From TrEMBL:
Region of interest: Disordered: 1-32
Function in brief: Negative regulator of class I heat shock genes (grpE-dnaK-dnaJ and groELS operons). Prevents heat-shock induction of these operons.
Keywords carried by this UniProt record: Repressor, Stress response, Transcription, Transcription regulation
Organism: Jiangella ureilytica
Membrane spanning stretches: none
Protein name stated in the entry: Heat-inducible transcription repressor HrcA
Pfam families (alphabetical): HrcA, HTH_DeoR
Family statement drawn from the similarity comment of this UniProt entry: Belongs to the HrcA family.
HTH deoR-type domain sequence ranges: 85-112
GO biological process terms, semicolon-separated: negative regulation of DNA-templated transcription
Any coiled-coil regions, as ranges: none
Residue stretches making up the Heat-inducible transcription repressor HrcA C-terminal domain: 155-374
Gene3D superfamilies according to UniProt: 3.30.450.40, Heat-inducible transcription repressor hrca homolog, domain 3, Winged helix-like DNA-binding domain superfamily/Winged helix DNA-binding domain
Amino acid sequence: MGSKGDGEPTSNPGQLSKPRPTCGERREGSGAHRIGTWKGRVPECDGRCARLSVDDRKLDVLRAIVEDYVATQEPVGSKALVDRHHLGVSPATIRNDMAALEDEGYIAQPHTSAGRVPTDKGYRLFVDRLSTVKPLSAPERRAIQTFLDGAVDLDDVVSRTVRLLAQLTRQAAVVQYPSLSRSTVRHVELVMLAPARVLVVLITDTGRVEQRVVDLPADADDALVGELRARINALAVGQDFASVEARVTELTERFGPEDRATVAAVTATLLSTLIERHEERVAVAGTGNLARYGQEFDHELEPLLSALEEQVVLLRLLGEATSPSPVRVRIGSENAQSGLLATSVVTSGYGPGELALASMGVVGPTRMDYPGTIAAVGAVARYVSKILKAH
């Protein structure tokens, strides 16, 4: 993956892009708790794992430690690696490899008598060397499709998506509503509620609906409202919001003096709807999942739960998505938000076209199932993008 934890899946829904070749070929490992496939080429050294001599065997040992620690939540010793994994070397060799990995900062010993646990640097190398991730099962894929296909509108899509991500990953899930600033107008409807009151309905290309009631300065008839509706749609449909604002601003002057106050009231309401920052909305689910990680993560729960209550912090954690496809992973200290050093964030952009309208992702301890989480976030983001494109 790219710098600062960014990684992009290939066209295969179950794969991440192969790392850039510089250091030779990798052979496939064979761990008892395999949660991803480790093969392909070693990525280009870029400063995180650069200039450190980590050969194939040590990488297999690191993979086994990560997998066992994620599965058991206990520090991993050399005896456990011998018993659970077919590494093909003696216990003494494994101990030597563990000592080398510790010297290079990939694993650490939490206390004197314990085994070893991965560091942020170790998790990063583990994630960077993944070429494929654990694919979702056929029942899981059908469940995603069935659950999301039942959504009746955009709010329901977001609500279902955030709950689905939390269930699939058993982490806290966060979904940003599609950004209005990146959307285009599908239709503007004007509905007469009373002679001097009109309902303005804005519908975007993602299916998002915004409604405002306008109190008019004078009574209006159906003919005027119908003409105004037609002219607004002729200017706005298919346009992004910035373009609509420029086009609609001059609309008032195209009507007679007696109607301009009414037209100005409607267009002013429409323009205020366009420029409001509704993209700051996010949905959160699954915070209760974080309690299952035990006492070691307890001291991190309070700052993480506080972060999940702050919309600005959540948006910062999700990051800026530029395209629907890349899955990005930020581990521990790679997160800019203070107080979340034991937290990892896996995110993806989503949207109906080549431009992402928003982000979704999951937040949890660094001790997470990265291949499974990456697969789930990527699959759900792709399916939601298809839903938005179809509507």
